[in-house]
Structure formats: structure tokens, C-alpha cells
Amino acid sequence: MKAVVTRVNAASVSIDGSVCGRIGKGFLILLGVAPEDTPEKCRKLAEKILGLRVFRDENDKMNLSLSDVGGEVLVVSQFTLYGDVSHGRRPSFIGAGKPDIAIPLYEQFLSECERLGFPAQHGEFGAYMQVASENDGPVTLIVDTNDLK
Question: In sequence order, which ranges of the chain are alpha helices (DSSP H)?
């Protein structure tokens, strides 16, 4: 699994002009699933992201966690994180997990967020969505389960 995690002051996701998820200070998480991903990788990814200490403390150092700042989470499914642009000009998405694998892991990620104390606002898997974000910093990290120890 891959995630692009952006520290935000506010973010929202809309479908057909209607906001379906909105947060204030916290993380906007764009989440991609690969065919080889597992529930265990999903659990580890959620724990890693939600434990990150990337909010500023009183000394202006990135030292505070999401829970320290009372932050919120917005999760948006993003199969394009597995887009391959190594050949030609049009991305190939064969590296992205098909819905039979990706949907259960996306839903598990939402459940893991809740288990860890951060009930997630979210988009709709497979929908055409518009995402609005007021980035804070900006601070954006890519977290890949293949890189976690």
C-alpha cells in the first residue's frame, strides 16, 4: 500500500458538487492499494501514519502527533498512486489493486483509523471526486508499506 500524507489546515472531498467528507487541522491521506497488499500491511500503514510526529511544537519543531494537536483524518482512495509512467505518455495502472482486493483494504484502513481513535472522513471508492486542501507548511510525505521496517 502507498499513501500520500499531507498535513493540512483544512481539506474536503466532494462528489457531484456535494461535500461528503471535511476536516480541519489534520491529515489528508491519498491511499493506494496494490495486488499484493494484505490486512497486516494495512494495519501497519495506519499505525505508522497516525503516529507520525509532524506538527509543530512550541519551539517550531515537527514534534507533535495527530493526537497531540486534536487532528482529524480525511482518506481518499487513489489508484493512480500505482500509475506507471516509465513508457510512453499515458500511465498504465496495472500495478493498482483491482476492486476485489482494494475495496476491502480501503475499508479496513478506515476501520483502523477509527480503532486508533481517528474516525476518518472519506470519499467514495471508485467515484470521480474533487479534493480541496489547504496545505500546512506544506508538509507532504509518501509512506509505502514496502519501505516500512
Answer: 39-50, 99-115
